[in-house]
């Protein structure tokens, strides 16, 4: 899989974006100028472009970069005129800062899905089909209705099916909060999720508790 090219000179934000992408299985390249972006875009699966860069306005390069790879603008400039212009110049999406990493990952997957450059990742657990990219869960073809947080929690477990996912990682990836603030919330959502998923064909539970550590989605 080709990398995601992150074009942003704001180090703290760019590092957070790269870390979030890597946690969700993306390879990344980080550059800070339009000149570097122009050199690397052809090798990228997706470009995340800030507009205020040291060597110019990212809008001037939207069309050229979008011709090389799917493009999402990530910018503090949230005015309608900037959003409309970026989209008209070829950007596939526009995400105004500040944004949650969960929304960023969802938008990246949506753009890649629309562009046809990535396959959906469907995890099979018993009689469940967990479509990570589409954010859907089905049993025997029928959708299971979950809340947004329950779905995000299940997707986080599905991305590491068969392996322990620590509560601290779930707190960071799903709630974007320290574990101390959301530990009871995590446990409550796991309990609710188990109730909605029901019992696997062979009995037991889809989500196993690893006592004192976290949870694991059965294979």
Overview of the structural elements:
The chain has 2 domains: 112 residues, 3-Layer(aba) Sandwich (Rossmann fold); 96 residues, Winged helix-like DNA-binding domain superfamily/Winged helix DNA-binding domain (Arc Repressor Mutant, subunit A, Orthogonal Bundle), CATH 1.10.10.10. A hairpin with a 4-residue loop joins strand 9 and strand 10. The protein has 219 residues and is an alpha/beta fold. The protein starts with a strand and ends with a strand. A 5-stranded parallel sheet has the order 2-1-3-6-7, sandwiched between helices. It has a 4-stranded antiparallel sheet with strand order 8-9-10-11, covered by helices on one side. A 3-stranded antiparallel sheet has the order 12-14-13.
Give a brief description:
Helix content is 40%, strand content 22%. It is of the alpha/beta class and 219 residues long. Helix 1 (11-23) crosses helix 5 (101-115), helix 6 packs across helix 7 and helix 6 (148-158) crosses helix 8.
């Amino acid at each position: 899989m080709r990398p995601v090219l992150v074009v942003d000179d704001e180090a703290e934000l760019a590092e957070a974006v790269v870390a979030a992408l890597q946690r969700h299985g993306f390879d990344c390249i980080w550059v800070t100028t339009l000149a570097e972006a122009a050199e690397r875009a052809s090798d990228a699966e997706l470009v995340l472009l800030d507009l205020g860069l040291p060597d110019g306005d990212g809008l001037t390069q939207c069309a050229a970069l979008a011709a090389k790879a799917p493009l999402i603008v990530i910018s503090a400039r949230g005015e309608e005129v900037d959003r409309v212009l970026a989209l008209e110049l070829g950007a596939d999406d526009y995400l105004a800062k500040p944004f949650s990493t969960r929304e960023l990952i969802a938008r990246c997957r949506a753009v890649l899905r629309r562009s046809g450059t990535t396959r959906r990742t469907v995890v099979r657990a018993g009689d469940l089909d967990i479509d990570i990219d589409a954010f859907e869960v089905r049993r025997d073809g029928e959708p299971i209705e979950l809340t947004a947080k329950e779905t995000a929690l299940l997707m986080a477990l599905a991305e590491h099916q068969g392996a322990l996912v620590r509560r601290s990682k779930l707190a960071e990836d799903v709630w974007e909060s320290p574990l101390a603030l959301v530990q009871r919330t995590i446990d409550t959502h796991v309990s609710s999720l188990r109730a909605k998923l029901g019992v696997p064909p062979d009995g037991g539970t889809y989500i196993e508790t690893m006592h004192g550590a976290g949870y694991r989605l059965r294979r």
